[in-house]
Amino acid sequence: MSAPKKLAIHGGEKTVTKTFPWPVYDDSDVRAVADVLRSGQWGDPDVSGPVARFEKEFAAYCGVRYAAASVNGSVAIRLALIAAGVKPGDEVIIPPYTFIATATVVLEANCVPVFVDIEPDTYNIDPARIAEAVGPKTKAIIPVHFGGLACDMDGIMAIARERGLAVIEDACHGHGAEYRGRKLGTIGDAGAFSFQSSKNLTSGEGGITITDNPELYETIASLRNVGRKKGHQWYDHFNLGCNYRMTTLQAALLLSQLGRLEDQTRRRDENGRYLAGLLSGIDGILPLARGRGETRHSYHLFIFRYDAAKFNNLPKPEFARWLAAEGVPAFMGYPRPLYKQPLFLEKKFFSAAIPPGVDYSGVSCPVAEKACTDEAVWISQQALLGDRSDMESFAEAIRKIQRHCLS
Ligand SMILES: Cc1ncc(COP(=O)(O)O)c(C=O)c1O
Known about the structure:
The protein has 12 helices and 14 strands.
């Protein structure tokens, strides 16, 4: 048998030489932004301008009646939470395996995040654990469709309906993804998306909240516009809002980019399925499970579970670094669950509404902890815009590392 090839991390040739640029744009995007620039209408008080047009088109794309654009995904979640009626000191259930914003928006709304562990095979919040965590102070759940894979929304909505809880979907990874044929973000009371630069639909920064509920929409739209209400004077303010408005330049870019989302999402979904099939054939590599009602995955992240035992106990962070050196846009993801962040351990909450007894030092979510330290490896979304031969090269890079480890 020939000796395994030298790894790229040790100075050998990369397995993957192609690069996967993001964002994707062409002259049509440049023209869309330049037109707004020339118009001089960079802000959007006008109901017929690019922001309103983008809201209408994104709502139609998702299949809901209302959308309120804002400055980022964090604000898009927080405004929905406040509009849903949470009060200071209320508890909000969230997963610990997510970006920090899912938790900080709860604190910023003067509420208490309650962490509920994730499922081992999807890394999404576990409905069985939600049922155990609901108490008299629980007012809302924020399920995160992590990486663009739909949560078990049937399970979550059943608990929410039984216990009278609001459901705000964090769909910041889930543009164009579906659950039982419905777009993510349309199943709970409201859904929130981010347009930050890494996201599957982006304008550098930005966010949007979608809903079918007219009262929720009116409140969210008012909160993001310094508490104004439609039909009233510019200097009339009814709610404790702020200026969280999106600019026309962002909206024009998003309108242009939205035209690509459907094709890009279809391609990521097809490539993701193909890659999952390829990786399932490698001992010690297990792609996250599909088929729990999710009908389309947006693969903001392609995530697989790594078993170091099958790679001569190479620690996960090293494995991810070696894989990235081979040219696969891979990384190890979150180093620790959110409740182990200094923010939570040191309780830097700056809110009198958080009861003094709240303490995160004893929280334990073993599945999330294992995902962080040992198991989860992420491949970023733009890599899934390649072709089948690229997916084959990603699998080959992993096999190359394995051969090296076992030689
Ligand atoms: C799961 C999740 N929720 C919320 C956010 C917040 O979005 P933004 O950065 O646009 O505020 C992000 C952004 O990375 C995210 O990944």
